[in-house]
Design the sequence.
């Protein structure tokens, strides 16, 4: 791994929503790079394409054009999704933390499955324990189902799930928007200290100016012209 | 992304061409070599040598393969030559044009009846708008009027008005008095459906916010009513096509019951005689009628909406409020009565001829005996199985087809539109002509009209499942696409699709029974409701119970079908999307677009 490479590098990336006549641009051409150990906040008004950008970085959605590189190698294109053996490189914390888990399974089962599939690790128990510790998650909660957690606990669990596969980049889409002020502050503090302690880079989508101010850098997205009616 | 709308267009063009090809190649596709049988019939002394058979084939226009057959037929059509009948050998044109004239006249009468019935149903909802009173859903009258399928209503009118009361002639086409019953039988279900659609749309529109704003602004009630009606009509106009397709299909059954020499009866005769050139001509004219009606609907839509709108631009009005209790009770009662019929009748023997012919109902024979002396209660109860089991198979096959096609996406658009525009009876006529009448053929015909609504629903459910947050995030856990599909998306899709399918079961059973009634489905001595009804109707003067028994079962099923269709689907999927996420569909700006200008 070459340290001079950006962890994530987007060049002229756009995204389109819908098909045919109803297609509209949801992300105007965007370029940005996230270096190792850096935390980059993405801000902008509703409809600017922040969540779309997060999804593209996570490999959950195809860009319409532009190049997306992770550690200097192609990540996903308009027609190709990320290669299975590189999936672990970018992990995320969703806006709705329960989304990181299959509802009918315990957290432990979901995390074990992710670790086995993404890293080939046969005995993931130790990794999961360490990830829970890093995410300040009470290990007793691992045997619950996502519906049985509070918002803050679910957020930590989602973070633990992401950390268990040792990513180089964490993508967090409004991680604190569904939480009360105190819990949100705790979550943002733990995310930022994680970046400092582990060297994992962070791409943070947020509406919270205070949270964004504590990141290394802030990138502001502007809404594409034909989406302005939607944002109004 | 342009790719996918291109696929939709491609799918339509290919399906359209396929349809034209199939219509032209029908005689070849039937695969029962008409040459051999005609040779035997016409020239008994000739040996069926290959040369003789080839000569007959050339005479029938069957030489070459399916494509030359189709091309020759279409070339003939464009010269105004519809070919010659295989049965009589005479030209088809004059007969089929006369039949079309009769059918067109009957349709006009039926539309008049339908409009009267529909207006009567809309009046209560319109009066509530005028008075500013809260709206209710369409009442039991509307349900009752739509409940009976045309073949059943026609039989009932024939039995009660023509045979028992002797007020009007039971059959024929010789003047206005012979047109009354058929146009009632055709027009009442169509008018009931139309009236219910409009009344429900009016009730829904009256709850939209702009109506209240107009009222607060002091608009006169008549102005508000005009606005509500126009907005309601705009949402219903797309479904007008359905009503017309119902008319086309219903005409086959009604013309058969009242022995009217129209296009429907012509088609049925052609199918039974396997006179494929005649069938082709009839199908062609019916398709032309459908196209003309479609164009008229388009014109009406344009007049109401003032220009073409992309699909989905006009949001559907909210469902009218109203409680499900009446519908639940009706459905429950009908279901209980059917189960009772099954429980009492299944242990009895439906085949052995041990009772006096046409024995009247008694303690021993609660429903009486049929013309051969078989127990009617047993036959109707076994008919429940004979009708419902194939229906269940059709629904399950429909669900599988729907899932496969929904996964194909845009590619299934063309076939879906054609299938949506085919009345089940017409599909049944064509399949029976190709394969001979059988339960399987009838089931295939009903399946052909069952899959499109299921496919639409399946596509929506698949989209919904794929958008569920935890399923969207599965790739991050390294779950491969196929596994996401089979272990997460499919299990989230199947339960609501199965519920939808089960709600359609009684309707499917009725379509199957209609085909059985016309002799296109189950064959004697199988007990099947439609077949039982058509067997009974010949003896209706001497033994009315022979029609009463199967009609009771069919009416119960009809009531069940309509009551189930009235139940509101439970929005279970919506609750699983958390309120905090941004991904729920934006619904805010809907009201601006809904206001009629």
Sequence:
């Amino acid at each position: 791994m070459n340290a001079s490479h950006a962890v994530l590098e987007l060049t002229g990336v756009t995204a389109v929503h819908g098909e045919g006549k109803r297609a509209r641009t949801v992300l105007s051409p965007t370029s940005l790079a996230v270096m190792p150990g850096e935390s980059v906040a993405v801000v902008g008004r509703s409809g600017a394409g922040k969540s779309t950008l997060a999804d593209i970085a996570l490999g959950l959605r195809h860009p319409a054009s532009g190049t997306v590189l992770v550690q200097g190698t192609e990540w996903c294109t308009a027609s190709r999704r990320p290669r299975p053996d590189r999936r672990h490189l970018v992990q995320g914390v969703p806006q709705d933390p329960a989304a990181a888990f299959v509802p009918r399974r315990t957290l432990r089962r979901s995390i074990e499955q992710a670790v086995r599939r993404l890293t080939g690790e046969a005995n993931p128990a130790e990794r999961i324990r360490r990830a829970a510790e890093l995410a300040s998650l009470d290990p007793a909660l691992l045997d619950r189902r996502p519906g049985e957690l509070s918002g803050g606990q679910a957020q930590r669990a989602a973070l633990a799930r992401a950390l268990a596969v040792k990513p180089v980049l964490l993508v967090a889409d409004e991680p604190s928007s569904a939480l009360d002020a105190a819990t949100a502050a705790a979550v943002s503090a733990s995310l930022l200290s994680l970046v400092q302690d582990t060297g994992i880079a962070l791409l943070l989508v947020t509406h919270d100016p205070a949270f964004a101010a504590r990141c290394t850098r802030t990138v502001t997205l502007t809404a594409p012209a034909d989406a302005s009616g939607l944002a109004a | 992304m342009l790719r996918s709308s291109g696929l939709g267009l491609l799918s339509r063009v290919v399906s359209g061409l396929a349809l034209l090809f199939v219509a032209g190649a029908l005689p070849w596709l039937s695969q029962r070599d008409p040459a051999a049988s005609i040779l035997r019939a016409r020239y008994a002394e000739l040996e069926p040598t290959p040369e003789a058979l080839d000569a007959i084939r050339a005479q029938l226009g069957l030489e070459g393969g399916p494509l030359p057959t189709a091309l020759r037929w279409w070339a003939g059509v464009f010269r105004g030559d519809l070919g010659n009948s295989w049965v009589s050998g005479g030209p088809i044109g004059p007969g089929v044009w006369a039949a079309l004239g009769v059918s067109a006249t009957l349709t006009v009468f039926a539309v008049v009846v339908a409009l009267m019935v529909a207006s009567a149903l809309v009046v209560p909802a319109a009066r509530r708008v005028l008075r500013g009173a809260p709206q209710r859903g369409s009442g039991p009258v509307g349900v009752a009027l739509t409940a009976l399928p045309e073949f059943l209503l026609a039989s009932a009118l024939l039995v009660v008005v023509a045979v028992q009361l002797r007020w009007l002639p039971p059959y024929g086409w010789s003047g206005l008095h012979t047109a009354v019953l058929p146009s009632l039988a055709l027009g009442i279900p169509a008018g009931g459906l139309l009236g219910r659609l409009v009344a429900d749309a009016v009730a829904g529109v009256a709850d939209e916010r702009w109506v209240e704003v107009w009222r607060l602004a002091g608009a006169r009630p008549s102005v508000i009513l005009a606005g509500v009606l126009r907005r309601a009509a705009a949402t219903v106009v797309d479904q007008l096509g359905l009503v017309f397709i119902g008319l086309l299909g219903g005409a086959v059954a009604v013309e058969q019951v009242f022995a009217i020499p129209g296009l429907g009866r012509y088609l049925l005769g052609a199918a039974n005689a396997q006179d494929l050139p005649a069938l082709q001509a009839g199908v062609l004219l019916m398709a032309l009628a459908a196209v003309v009606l479609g164009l008229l609907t388009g014109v009406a839509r344009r007049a109401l909406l003032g220009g073409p709108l992309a699909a989905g631009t006009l949001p559907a009005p909210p469902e009218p409020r109203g409680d499900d209790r009446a519908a639940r009770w009706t459905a429950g009662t009908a279901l209980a009565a059917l189960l009772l019929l099954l429980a009492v009748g299944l242990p009895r023997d439906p085949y052995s001829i041990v009772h006096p012919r046409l024995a009247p109902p008694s303690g021993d024979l609660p429903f009486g005996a049929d013309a051969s002396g078989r127990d009617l209660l047993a036959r109707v109860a076994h008919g429940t199985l004979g009708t419902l089991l194939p229906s269940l198979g059709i629904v399950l096959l429909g669900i599988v087809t729907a899932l496969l096609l929904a996964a194909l996406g845009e590619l299934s658009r063309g076939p879906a539109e054609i299938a949506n525009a085919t009345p089940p009876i017409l599909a049944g006529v064509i399949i029976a002509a190709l394969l001979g009448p059988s339960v399987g053929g009838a089931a295939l015909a009903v399946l052909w009209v069952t899959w499109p609504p299921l496919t639409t629903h399946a596509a929506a459910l698949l989209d919904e499942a794929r958008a569920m947050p935890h399923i969207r995030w599965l790739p991050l856990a390294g779950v491969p696409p196929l596994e996401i599909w089979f272990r997460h998306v499919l299990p989230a899709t199947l339960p609501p699709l199965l519920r939808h399918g089960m709600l359609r079961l009684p309707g499917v059973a009725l379509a199957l029974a209609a085909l059985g009634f016309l002799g296109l489905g189950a064959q004697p001595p199988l007990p099947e409701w439609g077949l039982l009804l058509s067997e009974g109707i010949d003896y209706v003067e001497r033994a009315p119970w022979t029609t009463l028994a199967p009609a009771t079962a069919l009416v119960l099923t009809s009531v069940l079908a309509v009551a189930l269709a009235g139940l509101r689907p439970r929005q279970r999927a919506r609750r699983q999307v958390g309120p905090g996420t941004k991904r729920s569909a934006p619904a805010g700006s809907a009201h601006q677009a809904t206001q009629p200008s």
Remarks:
- Residues 227-232 of chain A have pLDDT under 50 and may be disordered.
- The first strand of chain A starts at residue 8 and ends at 17.
- Chain A has two domains: 1-16+23-83+216-232, 91-167.
- The CA atoms of residues 93 and 118 of chain A lie 17 Å apart.
